[in-house]
Every structure is written in structure tokens, then in C-alpha cells.
Amino acid sequence: MSTGGSEGLFAQKTVEITDDVLQTYKNQGGFDLLGRTKDQIRTTEQVNAALKACTDLKLDGLVIIGGVTSNTDAAHLAEFFAEAKCSTKVVGVPVTINGDLKNQFVEANVGFDTICKVNSQLISNVCTDALSAEKYYYFVRLMGRKHSHVALECTLQSHPNMVILGEEVTASKLTIFDITKQICDAVQARAGQDKNHGVILIPEGIVESIPELYALLKEIHGLLKEGVHADNISTQLSPWSSALFEFLPPFIKKQLLLHPESDDSAQLSQIETEKLLAYLVETEMNKRTKEGTYKGKKFNAICHFFGYQARGSLPSKFDCDYAYVLGHICYHILAAGLNGYMATVTNLKSPVNKWKCGAAPMTAMMTVKRWSQNCGSTSIGRPAIHPATVDLKGKAYELLRQNEQKFLMEDMYRNPGPVQYDGPGADVKAVTLCVEDQDYMGRIKKLQEYLDQVRTLVKPGCSQDVLKAALSVMASVTDVLSTISSSSTSGQQFA
């Protein structure tokens, strides 16, 4: 096994896994054994270094553990190895706290259950304190990258007063001022019931969902790539972005000027959006107080970022079981000589003995996003596994919408307690996992059973009526499925 992340692989830093070595790390997480670096295998130099390492070490398989970016790299690496006639097979494993590596084959990611359970306990503790002091609004920012899966799950587990989901912001094209007004109106409504406290969750990726902030970030990142020094960027922004940049408080300006991550996204963990929103809400509430439209107590905000302390937790029982099973599947994929596959487990909301193990080709999860920079020209992107957004038509979001008014006004705080390894709390699964009906391969199997029944009923010797009915129904089904299939493919390709 290579240690020190992808750069450890390039440098051929390895350790042999024995029972003694593993004993200290079993069910403990393990990234402190693996190590992490700038986790990408993408450039020609990096890909060739990986090829050389795998060839020199005579590896049968290379297992890449990570989220959408790591598994996209794994898929491209598998193809490169095959073309280079390298005997090393590449296998991917869905591991990311962000919970955004989801598709018809992958129901959940290792790490997501743990971070949501740990965060939910921390949020619940803050809720209890808010209810005790009755004078503070807590703005809590959560990890999760661009999409809001962690924030949604933690809301459904701990019932804070409010959550701002990035997907809602994107769908409604909300500006930073729209969000500020939304929070201020909530504060004012609660003050009307003599409640001057509350807890508001903010996903770290919301900064990339707010249109004007995202446009500003893109301009800054473009200038940084051109070699413009951070101190000089403010003078080279477009008029609109410059006006927004000058409006922002100094601490946010400094954070927006940070260099982007290896996947070109902003350093979201370093951008204190919760402090920005608290600052803007306080400014607006003071203004309303002066105007006489707000008559509640003075607004007081306390800000938190629940990040690395949750990410570094001991894994939950679910994540231990899930990772253990995925490890076994990786062995079987490699023993079968398969290349470019991801280990998968479905039916995860059921007990472990009902889980269904499998492997899916990573290419089946990849799409090519196209976009046009100028009229008449089309740019085609690199095939990639794209992060899944929170489904605003899904059952988990519907559950939030059904309860959001109660959460806002009635202080229905819920404390699930710490991560459990035994007893009734040990086997509790993520709400978002349990409410969605995700058995994709199970439903395909059911369809095959129906098709087999049709073949049995419609064969030489069947009546004319049966044949006519079958032809009519199958023609209609084929037309409908062709239409749906072409529109969904178009939506993926040109997103």
C-alpha cells in the first residue's frame, strides 16, 4: 500500500499491510495511515508517474479511494493503463464526507454518515444553548463542498430553525441580499413570538451558489491563473464585480483572494460565509430597529464552523460496516481482472445481511458537460463523474419542506446524541438514505422479470388478441421510453 497520498504513490513510498500494522487502524478511519497530499492524478507527468510506480512495484491492482474528482481520475487512469498494456487494474471506492458521489449505482459514500452524526450532535448542543440563553442567533457553517447534502441531512437529524440550501439559492437565483432579507424576516417573525434566539445552518458551498459571488470568484480565479498578484486583483475586476468586492467586509475580501483548490473550486473551508451573513443580518436588523419596523431585542450573532473536528471523528458503525464490505468487493473485482470499475453496495437502508454487493463501470457514471463560450462555438468538456446536487424533487427535500415552518417557529430541536457502537442508536441510518427509494439495480431486475413473462406469454401459438395487445403496448412503451431517454441524455450532455 502506498502512503502519503497520490504523491506517495509517485514516489513509490509503500508499506506492507499485515495484521499487526492494521490492528491499530481497524475501524478507526485510516486516512492517518494512508496520508493525504494534493489528491489528483491528472496531468501527463502525474499519470506517467503512476504508471511507472505500478509497473515497478508489479501491482495487480490500484485502489483509488475518494469522491467525484478522485474517481474521475481513476476512470481516466484505468483507460490509460489499458492503452499502455499495463497489467495493473484500477478500481474506485466511493469515499467522501460530501455525500455528492451519488447516482443509480452508488447510494451513499463512506464518511457521510459519520460527519452528519457528529455535526448533528454539535448542532443539537448549540440548539440547547440557544434555548437556554434565549438571546443569541447561532450561524453554523458545515463542510460538504459545493452541494448541500450534509446540511440537509443534519437539518433532518437535529431540527435547527433554518437552513439555507445552495440548491435552493441556485434554483431561485437568490442574491446575497435576498438571503439576508430571508433570515431577517425569520428573526423578526420569531421576535413577534418573543423568541430572540435561533440556529441557522449554512453549507460551505453556498458562496458558489450565489450568482454575484460566484461571478466574482470566477473573475478572481481567472486573474490569479494569469499571474496577477492578490494585492492587485481589486484594480482589475469588472465594474460590477469591483463594486461588490468593495462592498464586502475586509475579512471576506482576503478569503476570496485565496488560490483555488486542485479541482478549480474555491477554498470553501477558508471562506467564512457564516460571518458574512451574520454581519449583513446584524446591519439590516439595526437598520430596521432605527426605522421602527423591528421592535424585538437587539440581534446578537455567534458564528461557528463545524469542519475538521467532525471530519476527523471515529467512523460510525454504518461507515465501518460499509467500508469493510467495499474493501472485500475491491478484492473480488481485482481477482476477476476487471479494470475501471467502482465497488458498489445497494439496499444500504436495510440490515447488513440484506445489502447487495456489486461493481459498476465508472464510465456508466460519467457524462460530458458541454457549454458555449461564444455564439456559434461549442466547447466539449472532459468526461467526468459530476457531483450530484440535492434533488429538489426528492423525498428528503420534500420532508424538509413539510417541516420547515415548524422548525422555524416551534423550536423542535432534536439531539440524536453521540456516535453509538452498541444499543438502539448504533444502527440508525441517515434520514436522506432511508427516505429515498434507491434500489436501481433491483428495479432493473424486476423489469427483466416482466420481460421474461412477456416472452413466455407471447410466443408462437398465442392467440391473435394476445399478439395484437402486446404489439400495441410495446410500441407505446418504446415511443415513451425513447422520448424520455433522448431528453434526459440531452439534459446531461448540455448541462
From TrEMBL:
Pfam families: PFK (PF00365)
Presence of the UniProt keyword Transferase in the record: yes
This protein's UniProt keywords: Allosteric enzyme, Cytoplasm, Glycolysis, Kinase, Magnesium, Metal-binding, Transferase
Keyword Cytoplasm found: yes
InterPro entries, A to Z: PfpB_PPi_PFK, Phosphofructokinase_dom, PKF_sf
Gene3D superfamilies according to UniProt: 3.40.50.450, Phosphofructokinase domain (3.40.50.460), Phosphofructokinase, domain 3 (1.10.10.480)
Location of the Phosphofructokinase domain: 4-329
Name under which the protein is recorded: Phosphofructokinase domain-containing protein
